Amino acid sequence: MFIQQLYTGCLSEAAYFIESEGEAAVIDPLRDVEHYLQLASERNATIRYIFETHFHADFVSGHLDLAAKTGAPIVYGPRTETAFPIHLARDGERFRIGKLELEAIHTPGHTIESTCYLLRDHHRLPRCLFTGDTLFVGDVGRPDLFGGSMTSAGMASMLFDSLEKIKKLPDEVIIYPAHGAGSSCGKNIGSETSSTIGEQKRTNYALLAPSREAFILQVIEGLSTPPQYFPLNASINKEGYAGLDEVMERSLRPLGVDAFRGLVLEGAFILDTRNADEFAEGFIPKSLQIGLKGRFAEWAGILVPFDKPLVLVVDPGMESEAITRLARVGFDRVSGYLEGGIGAWKAAGQKTDMVVTVEPEELALDLPFDPGLLVLDVRRHPEFVEGHVRGAMNRDLNGLGGPATDLKNLEHRNIYVHCESGYRSMIACSILKKAGIQNLRNVNGGYQRLKLLSTMPIITETSVLN
């Protein structure tokens, strides 16, 4: 028996490859399926099944591409409706993989069709459970995304029943969820990417709820607004999509400076994928910066419009990587990338803009003496509450892209932007620049460095209580 978790950190997503006696199955594949094909080749195995735990909202699944390349059927659980052929599993149906069996356990609540898959060994004993977005380490799937006519409370009630079914499994059964920490599919998923039924029964707040009513209140309370791309990705996974090979062929297109500029003048959206330091030193005006070295695809899905063609500014050699990551969250309208990168743009004498980056010590020196200074903290509100600079304005980056113009009345202020470490704050600076706000500075190292300064007035929950 061979099980490999394939974890993609920038999406907090876990896919799984299972093999026994030359037969294999893949659970919840990403859109770029070469990893699974390579594993099958290395194991001298044939992929017999592609299992989907539900219609994923935070990425485009690789189910169709993998099925086309292997001939394996796509398996979904009960109450699934798709625009393409699938094997509709019955609750309790078992699938043979070499000497192993995978049993479909219908667990609605996160979505209607949500299904977990229980792996049984050659003795038919339960060994591990692939839980999708039903059960995470320390959390459960949010019930407010795709219930159709169902309310969040109604979906949460269904999730309660599904978890009761899971709790009856032996404590030693390993759980393998579809997501880890940072995913928006839960409220506060733990940092580990696997656990056991017993451990979750002892520590997971949702599994410790004393009643159905208490459970519903707990899982609904404090849910953030889901990212804009969630319903789009779920629809793509349900209705189908163009193959990744086709997307790459039409998107991996080098554009000279004149062609790039022409597309921008026609309304193309500029996405700059370089890191924050490079972007700050010079970028094409009206660009949105999201660095490839962070949670790139997720933030692109939240902040980049899906109804406009995209043109990319990428470090040379990273073009294919950027287009692949964008395709993972449903961006199929990339019109090309700037050939030669920002260097070619500058060499052609085209206009650039920049972002001033300052050290935390400079903010500490200016703060007491500049009445026009504003600290803009773009972290999530729970992060802000735990500790922040006294007097700071909190605007979650998640919501900054749409209503950025409501900050126009702050143009007369000296705005210092920070997040936790610096990744999100440069994205925020690019958003503000696009909105016409020029008098801003990015704080290098963010709150992690600000809180270490003895001269910086920091407010925490403890200090508020005192």
Describe this structure in words.
With 466 residues, this protein is α/β, with parallel strands linked by helices. It folds into 3 domains: 2-231, Ribonuclease Z/Hydroxyacylglutathione hydrolase-like (Metallo-beta-lactamase, Chain A, 4-Layer Sandwich); 242-347, Oxidized Rhodanese, domain 1; 356-465, Oxidized Rhodanese, domain 1. It is 31% helix and 23% strand. It contains 18 helices and 26 strands. A 6-stranded mixed beta sheet has the order 1-2-3-4-5-6, covered by helices on one side. A 6-stranded mixed beta sheet has the order 7-8-9-10-13-14. α3 crosses α5. It is globular, with a radius of gyration of 24 Å.
Envelope shape:
globular
**Strand order across the largest sheet:** 1-2-3-4-5-6
What do we call the CATH topology of the largest domain?
Metallo-beta-lactamase, Chain A
Strand content: 15-25%
Helix content: 25-40%
Gyration radius from CA atoms, angstroms = 24 Å
CATH class of the largest domain: Alpha Beta
N- to C-terminal separation? 57 Å
Total domain units: 3
Judging by the overall fold, what is the CATH architecture of the largest domain?
A: 4-Layer Sandwich
What's the layout of helices and strands?
Elements: E1 2-8, E2 13-20, E3 23-27, H1 34-42, E4 46-51, H2 63-70, E5 74-76, E6 87-88, E7 94-97, E8 100-106, E9 115-120, E10 126-132, E11 135-136, E12 139-140, H3 152-167, E13 174-177, E14 195-196, H4 197-203, H5 212-220, H6 230-239, H7 244-251, E15 254-255, H8 257-265, E16 269-272, H9 276-281, E17 288-289, H10 296-303, E18 310-313, H11 319-328, E19 334-338, H12 341-347, E20 356-358, H13 360-366, E21 373-377, H14 381-386, E22 387-389, E23 393-394, H15 397-400, E24 414-418, H16 423-434, E25 440-443, H17 446-450, E26 458-460, H18 461-465
Parallel strand pairs: 3-4, 4-5, 5-6, 10-13, 15-19, 16-17, 16-18, 18-19, 20-25, 21-23, 21-24, 24-25
Antiparallel strand pairs: 1-2, 2-3, 7-8, 8-9, 9-10, 11-12, 13-14, 22-26
